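User: Hey, my collaborator sent me this sequence without any context and asked if I could get a structure. I don't really work with proteins. Can you help?
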Amino acid sequence: MRRIDALLVLMVVIWGVNYSIIKSAFAEIPPQPFNAMRLMIASAVFLVAIRMTRGRTGPSSSVFFTANPLTRADEWSLFWLGIVGHLGYQYCFVGGVAETSVSNAALIIGSTPVVVAVASSLLGRERISLHHWVGAAISITGIYFVVGRGASFGGSTLRGDLLIIVSVACWAAYTIGASRLIARHSPLFVTGMTMAIGGVPYVALTFPQFLGLDWARVSVFTWVSLVMSALLALNVAYLVWYTGVQKIGPARTSMYSNLVPLCAMTFAAFWLDEPLSADKLIGAAAVLTGVLLTRLGRKPALVPPEE
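Assistant: No problem. I've predicted the 3D structure and written it out in C-alpha cell form, which is a compact way to encode the shape of the chain:
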C-alpha cells in the first residue's frame, strides 16, 4: 500500500508539472501536432509493453496482464473509450491549455471527481447523499471564481476554458466506462489499447498541420519535453492511475487527483510567472472542498466480472 501511495504522489507531480511543460513547448510546436506526437510515442510504448508482458505471472501480474477473454462487448467498449477518452479528451484538453492559463485549466480539471459523482448518480451506478450535492454546488461556485468572474464572451481565455470543460466531460465518461473493463482486464491493456484506438484518428485529424511545420527549427529542449511528456504524463501516470483504481479503489485514488491543481498552480507561478490572484485561491479552495465532499462516504457499486 505504501508503494501505491508513493506512486500516486509521483503521478500528481507529473501531471501538475506537465501543464507548464507543454504550454512552454507550444511556442515552437502548435498544440495539436505536439499532442499527436505524444500519443504516437505513448501508444507505441504501450503496445510494445502489452506484447512483452503477455502471459506474465507474479505479484504484479494483474497490473500488466490478465487472462480473461476479450468479449464482443469488451471490444466495443475499448473502441468508444478510445474515441472519447483519447481523441475527444486529448484534443479538447491540449487545445484548452493552449488558450487559457495553467491555473484555470488545472482548477477546472480539478472538478472532474464532481462530474464523475454526478454522472454516476444519474446513470444509477452510485447513490449520492445530500452532502455530495452540496459539494458539487461548492465546486461549481469555485469554477465561477476561477472562470466566470474573469471571463466574458470574447475574453482571452473563454474559448480555452470551455474546451477544458468539454475535456472534463470526456474524461468522466472515460473513467466511468473504463471501470468495468479494469475489473476484467489489466490497466496496461485497457489504457494502451484505448490510447492506440483514439490516437489513430487523432493523428489523421491533425496531419495537415504537420505538413506546414518546419521541424528543423524545433529546439532540443522542446523535443525532450515532448518525449518526456509522452513517457511520463501518458505512459507512467495513466498506468499508475488505473493501477490505483484496481488496487485501492477509485475513491482513494481520486483523492490524489485533487492535489494536481495545487501542484500545477504552484509550478506555473515559478515556471511561467502566472500570478496567483485572490480569486484563483478562493476558487481553488472551493473546488477542492467540493471535490472532497463528493468523495466522503461514497460506496462504488461492484461490477460483476462477467460484464
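In plain terms: Residues 150-154, 300-307 have pLDDT under 50 and may be disordered. You can pass these C-alpha cells on to your collaborator as they are.
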